[in-house]
Specification:
Number of domains: 1
Order of helices and strands: EEEHEEEHHHEHEHEEH
Bound molecules: adenosine-5'-triphosphate
Strand order of the largest sheet: 6-7-8-3-9-10
Largest sheet: 6 strands, mixed
Radius of gyration: 18 Å
CATH topology: Rossmann fold
Helix content: 25-40%
Length: 268
């Protein structure tokens, strides 16, 4: 697994400090969120619908502004990285261009950075190999299964060789077996490339299987209520799902999540 043993000494890669987000219609999506995330962590944001998970992720990516507080990524204000390639983002939907083949979809971020097709070829091929789609470069999205489309989406996020991968419920629409397989593939990418991953999910099982740390959020207003380190069990594989450690951890995280349902402030 990524080396987290030096966590206390190293500075945070992501520093979320006293962050609030209120939308124009008055909805308080996130209140007073403070969190430090170190290089190499695999952090899940887990919580009920509407607790601000996606909003928090988009603020880290700089896709949404904060209303108060501050987020820095690698020392730069969110969205103002010195190198725009530092972050890869994977959405719940694969959001591929239907008229373009797999190769062209994965090439897009590099094209937007001004790389010609020949300059980009090595990286596109590398990203396609990472997700096992080297032989599908010429296929169109309509010819692929949901799991394969999501792999293309992951390849497109990885093609810029980011250090930080942000994933917003990427596997929620997939069947259980495909989801489990993609969970393993994301863990393998994380370990092989020393990534830092923030993964938004509703699923206790998914968060416990993947993460070195689960941040449990509650709604109304959206906020962090538990921060649970889970560094055991790596490298995790199907056998880990059968261990007592895994089932006990799922129970513990599930209890924390359940607590968020009874702890709702109806004034927000
Ligand atoms: N653009 C927006 N304008 C107004 N309100 C918004 C906007 N985006 C999100 N919200 C509200 O902010 C709150 C948090 O939304 P967010 O999507 O971050 O939650 P979430 O935890 O990711 O939910 P889910 O798990 O259902 O995706 C919700 O009440 C949502 O309705």
């Amino acid at each position: 697994m990524n080396d987290l043993s030096n966590r206390p000494e190293t500075p945070d890669l992501i520093d979320i400090r006293d962050v609030d987000k209120t939308f124009g219609n008055g909805t308080v999506a996130v209140r007073d969120m403070s969190l430090g995330i170190k290089q190499g962590e695999f952090v899940s944001f887990l919580g009920p619908s509407g607790c601000g998970k996606s909003t928090a992720l988009k603020m880290i990516a700089g896709l949404l502004s904060v209303s108060g507080g501050k987020i820095t990524v690698n020392g730069h204000p969110a969205g103002q990285s010195s190198d725009g390639n530092d972050i890869g983002f994977v959405f719940q939907e694969a959001t591929l261009m239907p008229w373009a083949n797999v190769y062209e979809n994965v090439y897009l971020p590099l094209k937007l950075h001004g790389l010609s097709k020949s300059e980009a070829r090595e990286r596109v091929e590398e990203a396609l190999s990472m997700v096992g789609l080297a032989n599908f470069a010429k296929s169109y999205p309509r010819e692929l299964s949901g799991g394969m489309r999501m792999r293309v989406s992951i390849a497109r996020a990885m093609v810029t060789r980011p250090k930080l991968l942000l994933m917003d419920e990427p596997f929620a629409a997939l069947d259980e077996m495909t989801r489990a397989k993609l969970n393993d593939e994301v863990l393998a990418l994380w370990e092989k490339h020393g990534l830092t991953v923030i993964f938004v999910t509703h699923s206790v099982f998914e968060s416990v299987y993947l993460s070195s740390r689960v941040v449990v959020m509650a709604a109304r207003p959206g906020r962090v209520v538990h921060d649970i380190p889970l560094s055991g069990g790596y490298p995790r594989n199907a056998a880990y799902r059968m261990t007592t450690e895994y089932t006990e951890t799922c129970q513990r995280v599930s209890n924390a999540l359940e607590g968020t349902m009874t702890n709702v402030d109806l004034n927000h």
